[in-house]
């Protein structure tokens, strides 16, 4: 039902951080035998005055779980969000490509996803980014 998973927690809510391990374990149980790409994202990095989770904790947990980690502020900067999704899309693409074909071909930075769900996600993500860029450049 999924090609990849993004697990998001709030740096202002320690309980949301504590649930990451359980969520990751649940995802792995649902996908026995396959290594599903997972990215852990700590959101609300801009709220320093109410921060309850240090970035080192997120990085350490992601290392234990064997996945990438990003600390972002969705409200302030879309580049970090873009980078997290870009890495995840690349992992999905590498996983879905047959390793026996040495053929090289030109692809875009975010390769064409194989499943319709990922294609829709990529389309909506690009729309959101282009809207954000238009908003930023028009200011």
Structural features, described:
- Residues 93-117 are annotated as: Disordered.
- The protein has helices spanning 14-18, 20-30, 55-65, 78-96, 116-138, and strands spanning 5-10, 38-43, 68-71.
- It is globular, with a radius of gyration of 16 Å.
- The chain is built from 5 helices and 3 strands.
- With 139 residues, the chain is mainly alpha-helical.
Instruction: Identify the strand order in the major beta sheet.
Output: 1-2-3
Beta percentage is 5-15%
CATH homologous superfamily assignment:
P-loop containing nucleotide triphosphate hydrolases
List the secondary-structure elements in sequence, H or E.
Answer: EHHEHEHH
CATH class: Alpha Beta
CATH architecture: 3-Layer(aba) Sandwich
Briefly, what is this?
50% of the residues lie in helices and 12% in strands. With 139 residues, it is mainly alpha-helical. It has one domain (5-97, 106-138): Rossmann fold.
Main traits of this protein?
single chain, 139 residues, mainly alpha, Rossmann fold, 3-stranded parallel beta sheet, 5 helices, 50% helix, globular
């Amino acid at each position: 039902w999924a090609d990849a998973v993004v697990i998001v927690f709030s740096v202002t809510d320690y309980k949301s951080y504590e649930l990451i391990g359980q969520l990751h374990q649940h995802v792995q149980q649902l996908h026995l035998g396959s290594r599903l790409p997972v990215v852990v994202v700590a959101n609300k990095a801009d709220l320093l005055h109410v921060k309850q989770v240090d970035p080192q904790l997120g990085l350490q947990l992601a290392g234990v779980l064997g996945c990438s980690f990003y600390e972002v502020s969705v409200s302030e900067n879309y580049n970090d969000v873009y980078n997290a999704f870009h890495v995840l899309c690349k992992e999905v693409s590498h996983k879905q490509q047959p390793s026996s074909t040495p053929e090289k071909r030109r692809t875009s930075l975010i390769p064409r996803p194989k499943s319709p769900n990922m294609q829709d996600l990529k389309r909506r993500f690009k729309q959101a980014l282009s809207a954000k860029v238009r908003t930023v450049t028009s200011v």
